[in-house]
Design a protein that fits this description.
The protein has 209 residues and is α/β, with parallel strands linked by helices. Helix content is 42%, strand content 11%. α6 packs across α7.
Amino acid sequence: LVLVHGVYGGASHLAFREILPLLDEKFRVFLFDLPGAGASVKKDQKYTIQSIEGGLAGFLRDVVKEPAYLVAESVAGVAALEVSKQEPALVKGVVMLQPTGIRTLEAKAGFAQNLLYNTLRANDYLSRKFYEQLSSRETVKKYAKKAYYNDDLVDELRIAEGTLAGENLEQRWLTISFVGGRIYKPFSEAAAGVTVPVLAVFGGEAEAI
């Protein structure tokens, strides 16, 4: 199994901390930090869905080196679908957790997102302050309660994990690319031509859908 996290303020492989011990009992498990997040190299660049796809495909070829199931959340789900077409010999199946590209992140950024992205890319001070606010305890708690069906699941440990990346300002480039609308792909485009088994899991009341 290759576990792939989504993109948000504190994005990293820690998203799977609770389920990892259960999976480790039955599978050989790999954790993949997206390019620009977690323990991966964090370059000052524009990140795109193609950046994520390229990083994941390279990880499968160079690290996993055998057919695997991809378990990916949020925007990483459509990237996993695309990689299954690029590297069919290395992907046995895809599990998509709350995938994007159906209504959200289906199209190019609008005027407001373009303005935000260009402003933050042009001003290092503003980009740092924006990221610090986005990964603050208050903001992480606010958006976590939107993401989870039960507010009681947003405990202190979950909030703490979501704020960890706030100390690593170099992760801001991935986050800014995401909120600036640079990381998107239509679900229909990613799914076209996929031949491996796919399980897509949606939350019935999730705001992302």
